[in-house]
């Protein structure tokens, strides 16, 4: 619900549990007034701030929805422009507003220069989520150059320091949670690599006295897969502010007369505890953000050949794997890297998206038909944005890569990045994939991207410093167009594991490859970080032959962990014993029976592997009639751990039955959530999956 108080020019945005309030003061400035619990509308007013000395201006103390560069505002600004006469100050004042149901647009105009700035808010009441964007419009006759365009700015209510949670990671160790107290100065999370990366997530989570179930948690996540920046600061007056958007590092955008630009959207909310935050965002993403083709359908159990075969793929061996996968209950068979061009290693072939005739002398359809005959769908790996210098494509079009004429191009994994801002490159990639999908019965594309950008010269662009945005949009656009033409094809975003995982990717791809690290023990940490602000359903998790790099873990253990997202299998099945195969069969059948709860239910993180030595995640169906509880530990101190397990998210008035360690329970939801049951965790390979059903 959105309300406008005419007398005081105040906008009140209300979601289920939260109120977000801002207004336009008498001087025409945008002023942030409140974010938190609901208050009476008529109580809001603009605090009178007066500058206390010549080094402190009252303007600098304002809490704003967006801070333009200039005047005596020295805090982080959100928008910075250069007008045609080199004036670099924006002086924006309220123009008018437009309210349509749950959408509010507030227009501001520069006092002299022809610039309009529109703040847009969209309220998703039931999900406790608000979407924010900023649109800039050049309404004059001269160019305007922007050095910074952030999507949103936030001011937090409390004067006490907030702790910021983000993820810190690298290839093979993504989504590792960090918590940093911001009691002064600035804190930045960013990507400068051209795309969102493994190192940090394009969001902020700011909290006080919070745990899974309580405390104040504020969050906002940028739906964008290019260079991003989250910049938080706490000033001497104890105001914590955050701005979030495209990174201004190596950034510049020119708006020609009559042009407008809408910055990538941000989704924000306030929750009581991290658990509520994750559940709100999870539901919102599943219902409103994920591509419509598959958002409400359970994702299939897949098999991926990468860890089993590497680049050495051929119809015979893949069919052998497929036969075993089908017997286990796999629904989608994905052939990974190695099937195209002269791709025998990572040194050659990228860019040549035609079937390798030596590996597949009878074409791709022989394998696809085998897979289909076994009752499975077929999927395939591609890395469309890249090219190996050793490829026909590069030999024909060296000018299609990002490069500078008088600099060497740095190769990473022996590859260069294609300049996707060029329309001929976009057409080439679209046509290659279109041909692949139109000629073959392919139901799934794993879209990989295995290096960050460098030498991002793009002579085709008036302003090459816009490359990250334009490249990202080109990728989204091709995926969208393919999805429209082939609505039955699922897309997965992969970038050397979880290097392109953000709400932008999730708005276009149906799922994400979480990490190349498939070690069941490391995955407990990686998956927890993923679950903070990303939807569970999109989290692809495979069971492979990596049986614990640091400590051994059994096949059952690995299944227990991988089942907590969208399950995949990735081992060399030809080496599995009869007993292994039975374990796989049993677990896959079990997963299918509970995957609707995992993929569409609410996650409660009950015990934390790092803090509690035991991982306990409970997924509850939305109607609370069923729940699946996963327990895992890779060894506890002093050989054992006894604790009382209190369930969460159940219906207090319903009775649930379940069996754990041979004991049959039939208890009320209230009892299970407040008293709980004793558990006794022993051994290095402890794993349990418990299904609760209402009686
Ligand atoms: C990346 C991906 C892997 C695999 C390889 C293939 O590393 O993350 O899953 O697809 O590329 O080269």
Could you characterize the architecture of this molecule?
By secondary structure, this protein is of the alpha+beta class. It has three domains: 62-289, Beta-galactosidase, Chain A, domain 5; 302-600, TIM Barrel (Alpha-Beta Barrel), CATH 3.20.20.70; 607-694, Immunoglobulin-like, CATH 2.60.40. 21% of the residues lie in helices and 33% in strands. The chain contains 14 helices and 38 strands. The strands form seven sheets. Strands 6, 7, 8, 9, 11, 12, 14, 15, 19 and 20 form a ten-stranded antiparallel β-sheet that branches. An eight-stranded parallel barrel has the order 21-22-23-26-27-28-29-30, surrounded by five helices. Strands 5, 10, 13, 16, 17 and 18 form a six-stranded antiparallel β-sheet that branches. β26, α8 and β27 (490-493) form a beta-alpha-beta unit. α4 (315-328) runs parallel beside α5. It is globular. It starts with a strand and ends with a strand. The mean pLDDT is 97. The chain binds alpha-D-galactopyranose. The site of alpha-D-galactopyranose has 11 residues, from loops.
